[in-house]
Design brief:
Elements (H helix, E strand, L loop, with lengths): L1 H19 L8 E3 H4 L9 H19 L3 E9 L12 H5 L8 E6 L4 H8 E9 L11 E9 L5 E8 L1
Antiparallel strand pairs: 1-3, 2-3, 2-6, 4-5, 5-6
């Protein structure tokens, strides 16, 4: 019980600070391992990410009702591969060393929209949230982009609510 309370508190403090400092405009995020050190382990990232996302959705109702909460899972990939997963377990096999993170954004200014405008080339594909097992999500996207200032491709799954 205390662990859940500490996680909620970490998310709420981040969300309130993000709004106060307008961190959402810079894309300030909250990595899972900053919510709970136990969430540093990649094998925990699917369940931990969804737990943090669900907590953030509830907190957002009272703290930031006009904002969108997004969970981002960064994926490995040196070149474009498209959507080559069908479940969250398939997705977990492709995680980078960077823990998933939460974002807070204004409607219409979600993280994948910002990345897409800065990309040299890439693809954005709508995913079936229910097939991924995330019923409370409003939209799920896969984004694969090569950014102007970086040599490597970025592959990310975004879940928003």
């Amino acid at each position: 019980m205390n662990q859940t309370k500490n996680r909620r508190q970490a998310i709420q403090l981040w969300m309130m600070d993000n709004i106060r400092t307008r961190g959402f405009e810079r894309g300030d995020d909250l990595h899972l391992d900053m919510i709970d050190p136990e969430w540093k382990v990649p094998t925990a990232w699917v369940a931990a990410g969804l737990e943090a996302f669900r907590m953030a959705l509830k907190i957002r109702e009272s703290v930031a009702p006009d904002f969108i909460v997004t969970l981002a899972y960064p994926l490995e990939g040196d070149e474009p591969r498209g959507v080559d997963f069908s479940t969250l377990d398939d997705l977990a096999a492709q995680f980078t060393r960077t823990p998933p993170s939460l974002y807070l954004s204004e409607r219409g200014k979600e993280p994948w929209e910002n990345v897409a405008t800065n990309g040299v080339r890439g693809a954005k594909e709508l995913l079936d949230c229910r097939a991924l097992g995330v019923q409370e999500a409003k939209r799920c996207y896969f984004l694969e982009t090569k950014l102007r200032d970086f040599p490597e491709w970025c592959r990310t799954v975004y879940i928003d609510g």
